[in-house]
Amino acid sequence: MGEDEMLGLGEDQQAMLDSLTQPEFDELQAMFNTPHIYSKLVESIAPAVYGHEIVKKGILLQMMGGVHKTTPEGMHIRGDINICIVGDPSTSKSQFLKYVCNFMPRAVYTSGKASSAAGLTAAVVRDEESGEFTIEAGALMLADNGICAIDEFDKMDVADQVAIHEAMEQQTISIAKAGIHATLNARTSILAAANPVGGRYNRRVGLRQNIAMSAPIMSRFDLFFVVLDECRESTDQMLAQHIVGVHADPEGSVQPEISTEALQRYVRYARTYNPKFTHEAADLLVEKYRILRQSDATGIGKNSYRITVRQLESMVRLSEAIARANCTHDIIPAFVNEAYNLLKSSIIHVEQDDVDFDDPDLEMDVEAAAAAADAAQEADSMDPSTPTPAPETQTQPKRKMRITHDKYTQMQELIVLHVAEVEQASGSGIEANDLMDWYLEAMEDEFESEEQMSEERGLLEKVLKKLVKDRFLMILYGDTQDDLLESDTMQTDSDVNAGKKIVYHLHPEVDGTSSSVLG
Question: What are phi and psi of 488, to 5 degrees?
Fold first, then answer.
């Protein structure tokens, strides 16, 4: 893309380019033609902060913003992107807020604990000279067409949080006080930072239980970023080296590929674009939203907050911001995928306990082993010539099998979706051995030995029993004795005696497209 294309994009672009000097224009044109400019922009955000690439992506897109729209009825649809960073202490949350306030020309920094509803929105005060009531702008009004950074957002009173509901979604502030009735513009993006309840993030409960926010205000944030302070030797060492380098040489240690001034000019230029969805991107957006809704409806690993239409609008705004970052008028499917991945990364799944497979025969095996040992001792006492059996030949209690919840969920989804596909294609279920052979073949690359495959087969038997117990699958028994006897099999003795073979079907209460239980 050359200079002519840059100059032929519209009046807003032309006005912005006319304000640049020739060296600044040349630098902007070079950035415009740089391949993979999106990733280079992300790397240049908050260079003094080590890591946190996903958070930097969100902040870059917040600076770019989505496209503001107006319906034929005159209703305004916001294009601003709201972000909340939740994390443990000392995870650079406030550093991101300070960086944005220093970077953006219209940005206001405030603390939630020290801010009231009137201080954030607007207050009605009496003028000292005239004695009349006037409106005094709050932080959200002062940050109109900019970003309002609110630190310690979780420390705000609930009543004060409610006051900014309208500003976050409708982009306006309505006042009816002291004879003054007014609707004021607050077209601002909100960048909030919050600490978890109790000081540290608890992964065994959802995001809703970790922060002191109401559900309505949570739904108004487009992205939630959870930043955890995890102990990892390699990461800790590199982080320490980065911090020491910043203190030793503040200017030399932080050298982003794109300077702050050049990045500011690029953001100004990119914000003049109003990208539109292509048909392929629009269809993909609908499909991604359907996937999010289906995964939210499942009872497996519940998400941190409910997926609503607001999250669909969030994907629209994020896709538009990504297109702006790439300085293009068309939103392609790749941009939608990036927006989907960003939104999905902000949905923190609850950490589940490991899944134990209790063997119903375990107690019987233990009792049988104990009875056998007692009988052997009694026989020894009656007949000393009887040799004592070797310890390894004595019956040992079976070991309880345990896997992580993520592993169980992965197996469950693969099995349920495959059974659903077989039922849809053939109109009947799938035999147990065929199902097990299919799964082991699908996971063949993960096995390093025959022993591992044998262990996985034993685990698969228990998972299938649990899926039947949890009403994901159901069993119908066949009638062919020959088929049963020829198979090398997972059937129980009772099934063999009955001359039956196991055929798995999808349970009527399960949605085969999402492996979730309906209702």
Answer: -105, 45
